[in-house]
Design a protein that fits this description.
By secondary structure, this protein is mainly alpha-helical. The protein has two domains: 3-372, no CATH class; 386-509, no CATH class. The chain has 22 helices and eight strands. The chain has helices at 3-22, 61-68, 73-99, 104-115, 118-125, 129-149, 155-164, 168-183, 193-200, 202-210, 220-224, 235-240, 258-281, 285-304, 306-315, 330-348, 354-368, 386-391, 421-424, 447-462, 467-472, 521-557, and strands at residues 398-401, 406-407, 417-418, 435-437, 440-442, 477-481, 497-501, 505-509. The protein has a four-stranded mixed β-sheet. Strand 7 and strand 8 (505-509) form a beta hairpin. It starts with a helix and ends in an 8-residue tail after the last helix. 50% of the residues are buried.
Length: 565
């Protein structure tokens, strides 16, 4: 194999794996399911920035999507699906080249395990696209943090931190990893970029601190979202083999089968051995091990101490971020992936048929999880045509009907999905945030949504009219998804006026005048200031990166190779 091929092929391998995962999903139409909700045109609204009584769980990801929707929501949907595995694999390839722990085949093995594992399959099926984009940014963040320890530039570190910060859990993970690497003895010469990383996390952090509702969670959610055993002899082995999501319906069908279990255990043993070998060569590996241990402890919290953890989320504002502990596994996955590559390097030094053994190691993660091929069970769908007409009939704040968070519509082949109407329609809404898990209803965190739900249930139970409650919260319209079932709104709310009716959706206007809703000016100013600080930090990083690239071009033209950039 030529030197050129050795340099190029490691970068092409993640591209091939990405196509293997996403090719069927690139057909015309939207890929939606559970929390993955993309719409034709997400309107930029104040509530998307986190100025609302609801917990800012989609901050800043919704605003990013709304800004990118100028190219069309379906294209953004496809770009996200491709970016998740592609950036994950390329990021691990770049990190492998940075740490210089072996050749192309061990690096490809590390990239494959990071790109192709149960965590990616389960979270992709669960629709956690923003979390997975943060996961894809993590190896880039680790690489840039390691470079900062050697005195190299900061722009890549800030950009990777911003990628992690698309969700609160991703931002927390990124800050944990970056902080440990930069502060690990001997401390990096540059630690001020940690402040910049904190600034790019400011949108979700500040919105959470100043939002207008409660910030505690239902203690029953700890058990509901606890990690699960997937047939590996307990929750701990399941987490160590990179699975354990709370929702059994999204677990790949072959998890727990004999051969996949053998392959998963073999990769785990190799990963542990590789981490030990790497730790002997590089002290900073201790930072990565510490981050992985913290991630594992968070994943186990809801299992080993459910009672104590339930009290924490019930009384400590923001602690509900950690109730789904398995979502914090990325540091462990990164460590195991690099360790797997290191172990493959060591094995190749002691075998004769190096290429055969190396290729086998590269393909092992795929053999352990063939269900990820073709998109982990995701499918392409089309929104009903009358939704576009219906949204023009809504001229103010609305609620979706039936008033439930998730539904399994016919147009999505009965696959569960978070109600798309609050995003599809241009007007703001009060969206329900209660969840039904395992047949149990978990209380939400939005006081307005709770008032609306209570009023509607009271109407179903005793015939009382919830119109006044809706009007007090500024609701003037009801958008009914007729395919989703539920009680007929005209039997509960008197004086409804039909504004539009199509094959799948009906829009009603309430009798009466909605009470205008106002947000505290200081809250708006503080939230938008956080966004401005994050944007300014990103712009500064991009400008600095552009200058470095410009300088690199000139240096290269003079016969110098700009390795440091």
């Amino acid at each position: 194999m030529s030197e050129r091929a050795k340099r190029v092929l490691p970068w092409l391998w993640p591209v091939l794996l990405t196509l293997l995962i996403t090719a069927p999903l690139l057909a015309p139409g939207f890929v939606v399911g559970y929390d993955m909700v993309f719409v034709p045109d997400l309107t930029v609204r104040l509530d998307l920035f986190g100025v609302t009584t609801a917990m800012p769980r989609a901050v800043p990801s919704d605003v990013v999507v709304a800004l990118l929707d100028v190219v069309g929501g379906v294209l953004v949907n496809k770009l996200v699906l491709v970016a998740i595995p592609l950036l994950s694999g390329l990021g691990m390839t770049a990190l492998w080249r940075e740490v210089r722990l072996g050749g192309a085949l061990p690096g490809a093995a590390a990239a494959t395990l990071y790109l192709w594992n149960p965590f990616v399959a389960e979270r992709l099926r669960l629709g956690a696209w923003a979390l997975l984009l943060g996961y894809a940014a993590l190896p880039w963040l680790v690489r840039s943090a390691l470079r900062l320890r050697r005195g190299h530039g900061w722009p890549g570190f800030v950009l990777a931190s911003a990628g992690c910060a698309l969700t609160a859990s991703g931002g927390i993970t990124g800050l944990l990893m970056a902080g440990l690497i930069l502060l690990w003895p001997p401390r990096a010469p540059k630690i001020w970029p940690l402040g910049a990383a904190l600034l790019v996390n400011a949108p979700w952090l500040v919105a959470g601190l100043v939002h207008g509702g409660g910030a505690t969670s239902d203690p029953a959610s700890v058990t509901a979202f606890a990690a699960r055993d997937e047939g590996y002899g307990g929750v701990l082995p399941t987490l160590l083999t990179l699975g354990g999501v709370w929702n059994a319906n999204v677990v790949p069908g072959n998890r727990g089968d004999l051969l996949p279990t053998i392959f998963a255990v073999a990769m785990l043993v190799l990963s542990v051995a590789g981490v030990v070998l790497w730790w002997r060569q590089e002290r900073v590996v201790g930072a990565l091990v510490t981050a992985a241990v913290v991630a594992l402890l968070i994943g186990l919290a809801g299992v080993v101490a459910p009672g104590a953890f339930a009290q924490v989320v019930a009384h400590v504002p923001g602690a509900g971020l950690f109730r789904d502990g398995q979502r914090y596994l990325p540091p462990l996955i990164l460590l195991e992936s690099v360790g797997f590559g290191v172990a493959v390097t060591a094995v190749l030094r002691h075998v004769r048929m190096q290429r055969v053994v190396g290729v086998t190691a590269v393909l092992l993660p795929i053999a352990a999880l063939p269900a990820l091929a073709g998109g982990a069970g995701l499918r392409v769908s089309e929104y009903p045509s009358d939704w576009q007409q219906a949204q023009h009939a809504v001229a103010g704040r609305f609620i979706p009907w039936p008033y439930e968070s998730y539904r399994a519509p016919v147009w999505n082949s009965r696959r569960p999905v978070l109600d798309p109407m609050p995003r599809y329609f241009a007007q703001p809404s009060i969206a329900p945030d209660e969840l039904i898990v395992g047949g149990h209803r978990l209380a939400g965190e939005d006081a307005q949504a709770a008032d609306v739900a209570t009023a509607i249930r009271a109407g179903v139970r005793d015939g009382s009219d919830p119109t006044d409650v809706l009007l007090q919260h500024g609701v003037g319209w009801i958008v009914v998804d007729r395919e989703a079932g539920g009680p007929i709104p005209t039997t509960l709310l008197h004086g409804l006026k039909e504004e539009f009716s199509g094959p799948t959706v009906t829009v009603y206007r309430l009798a009466g005048t909605p009470v205008p809703q106002h947000h505290a000016p200081w809250r708006i100013v503080v939230v938008l200031a956080a966004w401005a600080a994050a944007a300014a930090t990103l712009i500064a990083a991009l400008v600095s990166l552009a200058r470095r690239c410009y300088s690199s071009v000139h240096l290269t033209g003079r016969g110098h190779v700009p390795w440091d950039h």
